[in-house]
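Class prep. Write one:
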Amino acid sequence: MLASLLPLSNSLGTASNQAETHPKLTWTQYTGKGAGQTVNGEIVLDSNWRWTHKDGTNCYDGNTWSSSLCPDPTTCSNNCNLDGADYPGTYGITTSGNQLKLGFVTHGSYSTNIGSRVYLLRDSKNYQMFKLKNKEFTFTVDDSKLPCGLNGAVYFVAMDEDGGTAKHSINKAGAQYGTGYCDAQCPHDMKFINGEANVLDWKPQSNDENSGNGRWGARCTEMDIWEANSRATAYTPHICTKTGLYRCEGTECGDSDTNRYGGVCDKDGCDFNSYRMGDKSFFGQGKTVDSSKPVTVVTQFITDNNQDSGKLTEIRRKYVQGGKVIDNSKVNIAGITAGNPITDTFCDEAKKAFGDNNDFEKKGGLSALGTQLEAGFVLVLSLWDDHSVNMLWLDSTYPTNASPGALGVERGDCAITSGVPADVESQSADASVTFSDIKFGPIDSTY
């Protein structure tokens, strides 16, 4: 018999069929070189993965909403509750000390789960906020069990610290239940945005039995620290012209190919992928940075005056592996200066060399990113496959119809036939990524 629901009404609430116990995850806050203090954090599963129901009756089943419980956004939110998560049993998520492991396919008692997305919490009801400007963020990752088509991602987004409860009274679940997600792609698959159900114009995705798209998108500025598998990696800033989570619809979301650059967010971003930038021997199995072994990744946010108050001018990358510090690869593409950080000049030159739309510059570039970073961003860690373009934008040749030899289209050595979710899910169900030893502090303090 199902346990009774918590006594909440007229809001997106929480249910108690499964206790919500956040896995513990420690990380280290530095004030200077060698001066680190352990922080006892927790992680929480995104609300989109959770069972959503009323007294045991599904509000959302497969990739469709209940027509009786969810005839409109407000009624649906008032009817429905987010339940707790069995992190290891249902979602393949485990922690130990400072280590987090995300499994890909998990066969639970009631369903099969694909991938996951979690956030770092400061306490049980608030996300940990990171102010990145003039700081560095460091972690260790093991990508050895991630084949073509998968993405073990570490990134920051401009979510609300409490998951949106203060701004939106209809949302009572908050950060404790992983609400409030947004990113620069303006995702339409979020079931609840600002606490309201995204049921309007909902269309199940034809190639994903668990997902669909509603009228609204949840957009915000995003800093991709690490998008990677064992074959390729990239780090990418994305700018949005509005701050925080903004619920978009129509042209503001930039959904169509003809309006991709007319929305409020820079969906392309300014990416640094070593393979794409001309060094095919830098990252991968047995390469300079060997993805068959754990590697420590250091990302630095440099300002013009080396102070928190300064203007963001560079994003630098270093790796530590086998006791050696390895600087990021240098660009080896005609028309792009042979440097290795992300700067506005690098972004401008890369966009021109590759024939890409420079929406990054139009949205304000690094200066605009730095301004938004001052508010603090939430840390996201995820493992996912790509039902849109099979992750080819990360690890293969993309677009696949580009002219042979065109600059910027080679992003990794995976075949253009790779990454089909049905294939990856059946052939690499046991794939996983392990993140550990998260560190945060002043420049050059954490490695």
